Amino acid sequence: MKLIYTDSLVVGAGLAGLRVAIASKERGLDTVVLSLIPAKRSHSAAAQGGMQASLGNTVKGMGDDEDIHFQDTVKGSDWGCDQDVARMFAHCAPKAVRELTNWGVPWTRVTKGPRQVVVNAEKVTIEEAEEAHGLINARDFGGTKKWRTCYTADGTGHSLLYAVDNKAISLDIPVHERVEALSLIHDGKRCHGVVARCMITGELRAYIAKSTTIATGGYGRIYEVSTNAIICEGIGQALALETGVAKLGNMEAVQFHPTAIVPVGILTTEGCRGDGGLLRDKDGHRFMPDYEPEKKELASRDVVSRRMTEHIRKGKGVDSPYGPHLWLDITLLGRKHVETNLREVKEICESFLGIDPAKDWIPVRPTQHYSMGGIRTDKTGQNPQLKGLFSVGEAACWDMHGFNRLGGNSLAETVVGGMIIGKYVADFCQENTLEINTGLAESFVNKVRNEVDELVEGPGTESPFVLRKEMERIMMNYVGIFRNGPELEKAVTELQVLLKRAKNLGLKCKKRHANPELVEALRVKRMLKVALTVACGAAARTESRGAHAREDFPQRNDKDWLNRTLSSWPDENSLTPELSYEELDVMKMELPPGYRGYGINNAIAHPDTDKREKEITEILSELGDNADRYQRQQALMPFEVPEALMARNERLCDNLDRPVSAVPGEESEGEQAL
């Protein structure tokens, strides 16, 4: 048995994992990162549109601050998020952007003077302040009151990942590539590391660490069509689930992105609509104003995806060999804009569709995109059930997204969450000793070795590829954008059958090294358990909240369902997860549940909502008119982040002594805020 010791072990080399590793290394801790692939190929590179941070540099972002970003995030979550975490995130996002600048991210910058933009299908001229020249720019994104999404054309994730990985390289952080974690090493109370398999040689290793951070991304590939990279299979979540101790949170909260290209499902960024792109039906009609007259194409992602699906159901989709789709029209932005700010979209359309998006409409439809659920953590990123087990990014349910994520908040969460949680991970490593129990490690290594032996030498006949394809079909057909009781129950039943069949897996290729069939067999059993937590959680939640839309229970039910779903796996022979629930305390909320702003307000109110609103009014009244926004916020819901991150953010609009007009002759949002 090969043992490798370290202080801070990070599983996953995307933005979130690397940022935690950097925080550990900067504290002088021995740090090791495990990755399926070279770090610069992680799925973080696929993020196109940008990351949200309330810098307030552009005229359309004037007046933005942490309060507005926080409110947008809470409303976007459909009041399903942890508001303390949302506050921590909104406070630290500007700091993360500026840190990334120092690390070499080439943010798109503001150019002073007039420039043309497309707003609500019309070209308008906005006047950027002279003082803003050269500062970080921002574009519009769905569900936000201000232009807040910082970007580098439409290759933001690529730029961030290269900068952060280069920072990790400069700190000599080792990344063990082509290594897959297959089990957590734990004693039921504390996590001590992982058992990992070298995908090239087949060697099993035990990595022993003070802290173990899971940063493996989402679980989109349990679906048939997903914008996720093929490595986003939910294995990190499965490792926690299989401990029987650690719990997952909100696994039924799965987001579908409105504009993935047909048929391959590759994403076209929300920046297309943020920059002024339109959604059209088979008649060329711009239909979103019919459903959402205020926000139109820039309603929250879950809302736009549902409206598109509703419109297709009405027969307004474009027929194709791959099923009906709608059109994304960015031709009105002009060729220069497309080739400058949406160049990745242009290349994707040319390579996969053979079209020029500067003159042709893009065929799109909603496709699985993001996992709000994940390994349940507290505010420090640590799992409450297993001491020493941390999680960050899309692998985690931290829980700043609740039941729907705003565009731009995911890329932000990777580096902001990594920045915050990384400091807590480093604290944990410095405050705790390395516990080495070779017998415990060997028992987990032997368990994984026996699993491999059974697959390679056993009499099983089931194909892992067949089981996986069936799982993907079930999830796509029955646990999609719109859900209902009978289909969800069918999904659970059929997935349980597949999990039973997975006990009889067999391989045609008997190699123990560099064997894709073995890799698939090891993963599919774990993926099926993750799929069952999603389906069972969705079947049990008899309400609609955010991306979880029950056709048979269309109301958001704060009275009975203002809680977080927790999932655990009882034992290895179980076919169903155990579900429990964690209540969200309205009386501790800074922003009590209210109307989200889309469609009709049909929410069933929580009995404490009115009480909390009255309490907030009294608290603010006692503070008086002289209290500033920081004092008001702290009085309502005090929050903490590591001391090094507590300083207030500075913004251009705080220093401007004159209003700036967005459109000549009209008052801008910035003027209203100033």
UniProtKB/TrEMBL annotation:
List GO molecular-function terms, semicolon-separated.
electron transfer activity; flavin adenine dinucleotide binding; succinate dehydrogenase (quinone) activity
Query: What PANTHER family does the database record attribute to this sequence?
Result: FUMARATE REDUCTASE FLAVOPROTEIN SUBUNIT, SUCCINATE DEHYDROGENASE 2 FLAVOPROTEIN SUBUNIT
Biological process (GO), any one: electron transport chain
Organism (species)? Shewanella atlantica
The record's EC number reads 1.3.5.1
Q: Where's the Fumarate reductase/succinate dehydrogenase flavoprotein-like C-terminal domain? A: 468-598
Give the protein's recorded name: Fumarate reductase flavoprotein subunit
* Positions annotated as active site in the UniProt record: 301
